[in-house]
Amino acid sequence: MKNGKFLTMGIESSCDETSVALLLEGREVLSNVIASQIKIHQVFGGVVPEIASRHHLENVNQVTDQALKEAGVTLDDVDLIGVTYGPGLVGALLIGLASAKAYAFAKNIPLVGVHHIQGHISANYIQYPELEPPFMALVVSGGHTNIVEVNDYNSFEVLGGTRDDAAGEAFDKVARVLGLGYPGGPLIDQIAKEGNPEAIPFKRVFLEKGSYDFSFSGIKTGVLNYINSEKQAGREVNRADVAASFQQAVLDVIVTKAVHAAKEMKKDKLVLAGGVAANSKLREMLQEQCGDKGIQLYRPAPILCTDNAAMIGCAAYYKYKAGFVSDLTLDAYPNLPLTDI
Ligand code: KG4
Ligand code: ZN
């Protein structure tokens, strides 16, 4: 407890960010320390799981100390520990879990395992103190592309997901083909601003009528084929046009499906989540479409879109309030499905 308020510590290590956060009453962030490994993985063009685990191990205690210090609290003040236990890289998840379990055991603090996507959705509760379920959520990250009906804090219906690549993965792969670097999403977002989104008509893949699923592997091949054929014809590839056209094709599908889902399921709120939610064009397109359809759009600040522990702490708080606790046998699940608690 701090000043009579419930204190949660969140821990996140599912991919390449080691993060620890402290929150009051589930939503008020006192600290949210994120140690990013992006620079380390950049030379490899993507996250190397073994290297990620090693760095989580090196970082986790320091990040925890810093988060406690910034929040002006000690472990003795902590009422609850929330930790990501899936989905993610198993070696990376295990570091956050081992650390959370050690603190929980040593200080006799209740522990709650959190699904990473529930965390991403919960970032919106932090950004918007008045937000409450039910609502529709669009989760777009490096590992996931999901449309989720959120009926209550701990009640979810996954309406659709990707059948191959996640949206962020497609951004990263196309950026690599264009020689832009890693992670590709922000770089495509940037360069696309100078390109023509209608220059190249990449195919919009909507799948079967009524489906909320996605498929992005085709467009990735489409970009590759386009670049090869331009090169063979001796023409210079306009990277800004390719980036803008690719981005537009992907976002046309994502935005159409998300807004349709909200309308279809009679939700007047649409919540954006995940790393790709930082994309400026996506935010702009959703704002426009939601405005037209009378849907209230919620968009967390970019720092809450990326992987962070504040969102995990927030989700843990609501699971705990609903009576859920994990025990010390809690394990890592790389393919954990999103279900109700
Ligand atoms: O949620 P996140 O930090 O990690 C996962 O849980 O996957 O998402 C990372 C993904 C990467 O693929 C990155 O390229 C993408 O989010 N991303 C973006 C932008 N910023 C990050 N994609 C498009 N536009 C952006 N501005
Ligand atoms: Zn994530």
TrEMBL record:
Catalytic activity of the protein: L-threonylcarbamoyladenylate + adenosine(37) in tRNA = N(6)-L-threonylcarbamoyladenosine(37) in tRNA + AMP + H(+)
Cofactor, free-text remark: Binds 1 Fe(2+) ion per subunit.
Localization per Swiss-Prot or TrEMBL: Cytoplasm
Pfam families recorded: TsaD
Xref: Gene3D superfamilies: 3.30.420.40
Segments forming a coiled coil: none
Residues annotated to bind Fe cation: 116, 120, 307
Keyword Acetylation: no
EC supergroup of this enzyme: transferase
Gene Ontology biological-process annotations: tRNA threonylcarbamoyladenosine modification
Keyword terms, alphabetized: Acyltransferase, Cytoplasm, Iron, Metal-binding, Transferase, tRNA processing
Entry GO CC: cytoplasm
Binding sites annotated in the UniProt record for substrate: 139-143, 172, 185, 189, 279
Molecular function terms, GO-annotated: iron ion binding; tRNA N(6)-L-threonylcarbamoyladenine synthase activity
Family listed: Belongs to the KAE1 / TsaD family.
PANTHER family on file: TRNA N6-ADENOSINE THREONYLCARBAMOYLTRANSFERASE, TRNA N6-ADENOSINE THREONYLCARBAMOYLTRANSFERASE, MITOCHONDRIAL
Protein name, entry field: tRNA N6-adenosine threonylcarbamoyltransferase
Species whose genome carries this gene: Aminipila luticellarii
Lineage summary: Bacteria, Bacillati, Bacillota, Clostridia, Peptostreptococcales
